[in-house]
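To the wet lab folks,

You asked to see what we're planning to order before we commit. Fair enough. Below is the target structure as tokens, and below that is the sequence we designed to fit it. If anything looks off to you, flag it before the synthesis order goes out.
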């Protein structure tokens, strides 16, 4: 009973009932319409036949008198067919015909209108169907009064019309049975298929809820709505799995990266307390503690900044700006740091490069790329000076801002991983930094509907921030609008 109740509550069952009712109503309407129109057509044909016979017999009566009429009625009464004839005198006595009797009231109301009446056939007319003896038949008759008081009744048996109605009734019953059977069969197969797909989805979701984020909803390749839904849900699950994996990696990296400075900070305080009281010692310990605290604060600020950029809650207002101008300003800002590191910065900007973006965020992204190039883009060969090239290239509706160094570069297998949070290829982690620079650049690129790509500078690494270009009037180009 629970299984039947579960099936009865399904949408497919309810839709099957609706479709069954609609098709049944359509079949009933069609059959009733056909029956009514066909019956009306048969009735009109019977009336026309009766009228024609009465008109012909009346003409014969006028030309040949009652004797000719009697002979014609007798001859037609004995002929095969379903016509009924009765000729009576002015007193209602039967003269000729194949009808045994007719109600006196019917003969008295000889107004020429066709009407259905019951009747019984003569015994001589039942030789071909003895079982019809004593049965009451129905006929459509018309009675006319001839000169001399004679009454002529001509009619047609309605058995053919009743047989047609019986055929229609049988067809109606059969069609309803077929509709019900087809509806039940369709419901069975549809429900079975739908419930099978839904059960598969439920099973997969329960497995995912249990913790197995690698499970996906099966796609059978039919391209129906279940396949489209499965593709969308699987894409969502891929994204959720990616975010959960990223969250786990971030948590692990936070624990790893913050454990060392926190441990160092605590150890420094313990050492300061363990040593003899000294103002200079305490001051040195406090200054080092402040420095470590600032590094921790910068790390958390970077995380918050990335989160705000990814959520689009930075209040950034996209406006047309010149990427070349931003590059020059950031390069000029980093000139002292480059000279201190013994590196050279070359700006390769030729003409304006209008883009749609937020000035502060793009400047921050360029600064991060330039900072990474100065830190990690030193050549491995001794005696070779580090050179960092920054520039822009325009391609149709896109503007690429690139920062390239001539260092060791990043292996192709690692380029997709270095943009993740806290990922640093330097295993010793002796260089300052938290591994969040490229993550922020990636977030800025996504916010601006752009991309960040890492490639081979031959030698070195080239990072390209691809952004939508702006037209001269400040609007986005048609390609990116």
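Sequence we intend to order:
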């Amino acid at each position: 009973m629970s299984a039947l109740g579960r099936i009865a509550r399904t949408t497919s069952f309810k839709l099957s009932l609706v479709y069954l009712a609609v098709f049944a109503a359509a079949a009933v309407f069609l059959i009733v319409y056909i029956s009514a129109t066909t019956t009306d057509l048969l009735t009109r044909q019977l009336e026309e036949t009766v009228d024609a016979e009465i008109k012909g017999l009346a003409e014969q009566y006028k030309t040949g008198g009652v004797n000719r009429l009697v002979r014609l009625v007798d001859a037609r009464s004995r002929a095969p067919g379903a016509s009924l004839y009765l000729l009576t005198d002015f007193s209602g006595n039967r003269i000729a015909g194949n009808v045994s009797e007719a109600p006196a009231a019917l003969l008295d109301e000889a107004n020429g209108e066709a009407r259905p009446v019951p009747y019984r056939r003569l015994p001589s007319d039942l030789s071909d169907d003895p079982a019809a003896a004593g049965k009451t038949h129905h006929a459509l008759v018309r009675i006319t009064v001839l000169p001399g008081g004679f009454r002529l009744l001509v009619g047609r048996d309605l058995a053919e019309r009743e047989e047609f109605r019986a055929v229609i009734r049988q067809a109606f019953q059969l069609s309803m049975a077929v509709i019900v059977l087809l509806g039940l069969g369709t419901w069975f197969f549809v429900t079975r298929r739908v419930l099978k797909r839904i059960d598969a989805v439920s099973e997969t979701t329960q497995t995912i809820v249990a913790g197995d984020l690698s499970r996906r909803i099966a796609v059978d390749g039919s391209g129906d709505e279940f396949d489209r839904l499965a593709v969308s849900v699987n894409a969502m699950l891929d994204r959720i799995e990616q975010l959960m994996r990223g969250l786990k990696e971030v948590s692990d990296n936070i624990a790893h990266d913050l454990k060392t400075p926190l441990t160092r900070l605590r150890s420094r305080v313990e050492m300061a307390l363990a040593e003899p009281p000294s103002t200079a010692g305490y001051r040195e310990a406090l200054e080092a503690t402040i420095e470590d605290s600032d590094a921790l604060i910068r790390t958390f600020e970077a995380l918050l900044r990335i989160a705000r950029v990814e959520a689009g809650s930075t209040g950034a207002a996209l406006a047309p700006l010149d990427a070349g101008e931003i590059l020059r300003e950031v390069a000029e800002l980093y000139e002292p740091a480059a000279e201190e590191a013994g590196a050279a910065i070359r700006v390769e900007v030729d003409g304006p490069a209008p883009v749609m973006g937020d000035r502060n965020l793009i400047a921050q992204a360029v600064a991060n790329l330039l900072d990474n190039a100065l830190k990690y883009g030193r050549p491995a060969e001794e005696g070779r000076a580090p050179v960092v090239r920054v520039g822009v290239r325009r391609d149709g509706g896109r503007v690429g801002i690139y920062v390239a160094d001539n260092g060791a570069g990043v292996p192709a297998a690692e380029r997709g991983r270095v943009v993740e949070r806290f990922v640093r290829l330097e295993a010793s982690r002796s260089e300052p930094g938290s591994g969040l620079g490229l993550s922020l650049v990636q977030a800025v690129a996504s916010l601006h509907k752009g991309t960040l790509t890492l490639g081979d500078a031959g030698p070195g690494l080239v990072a390209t921030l691809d952004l939508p270009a702006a037209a001269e009037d400040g609007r986005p180009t048609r390609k990116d609008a």
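Structural context that might help your review: The radius of gyration is 50 Å. DSSP finds nine helices and twelve strands in the chain.

Thanks,
Computational group
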